[in-house]
């Protein structure tokens, strides 16, 4: 059973019972929402059963982690998160089969915006594991959804708030504060992970249309975009939710650099299109099929 069966061409929830008889009801609902939204051409809508989003007070966020207690919590969170996901890898619940393209990181000597397709709660860890030995400053900051930062509880709530995370606020002042913080991080040589697809679609394999925000950040800071595309394949092992554990292959593609002499809108848009083209080509190379979506919004 391949994930290509549950994306573009799954019309009804009943079909999911034939595809994965042991799949949990929660995952069936999520896959059904994905199929419906894909048919409607709405690729940036959240599909998970997340708790209601509490508004973010950006004045209380230490974006750069400069406060004493922020540094302590960040150190603890990074250690906890790394240990937690490393155990999942050891137990075979998360599989990173291989990493390709690390030679493309040799061009980096400072800050960069890293892009990744958004398909799981742990995909940022997969990206970090692939990049950790090659990041100029060793850190990977992550832009996270407002609700994950404000509303998540337990271990994941602690990680969402403290693992070098940068919350994306829904209000204008919060967005401006985030943009300013990202600019400072990139200027000092750090790397920032963004999800240009915006919403997480569980185990979805196709690249979805990219938002422009991350590319504007890269262009303004005059830093490259490092495209990371993670492809998936079913393993023989079933996860607790009844779906095959995915074998992940990380593809690090050539950096996309800002072109001098272009205005911000034209320059960032060119970076967005170049990056998406790399994703589309890699998708076709790995999965052996022509890339298509229900609606021609990707370009």
Helices and strands in order:
Layout lengths: L12 H7 L5 H16 L27 H23 L4 E6 L11 E5 L6 H9 L8 E6 H6 L2 H9 L2 E4 L3 H16 L3 E4 L18 H9 L3 E14 L5 E9 L11 H24 L12
Parallel strand pairs: 1-7, 2-5, 2-6, 3-4, 3-5
Antiparallel strand pairs: 6-7
Brief overview:
By secondary structure, the protein is of the alpha/beta class. The chain is built from nine helices and seven strands; from the N terminus they run αααββαβααβαβαββα.
The level-1 CATH class = Alpha Beta
What summary fits the major beta sheet?
7 strands, mixed
Rg (CA only) = 19 Å
Number of domains: 1
**Helix proportion:** 25-40%
Spatial sequence of strands, sheet with the most strands: 1-7-6-2-5-3-4
Total strands: 7
Count of helices?
A: 9
CATH T-level topology: Glycerol-3-phosphate (1)-acyltransferase
The secondary-structure class comes to alpha/beta
Give me the strand/helix succession: HHHEEHEHHEHEHEEH
Round the mean pLDDT to the nearest integer and report it.
91
pLDDT below 50 for ≥5 consecutive residues: which ranges? 1-14, 295-299
Q: What coarse outline follows from CA principal-axis ratios?
A: globular
CATH superfamily, by name, is Glycerol-3-phosphate (1)-acyltransferase
SS strand fraction: 15-25%
> In whole angstroms, how far apart are the ends?
30 Å
CATH architecture annotation: 3-Layer(aba) Sandwich
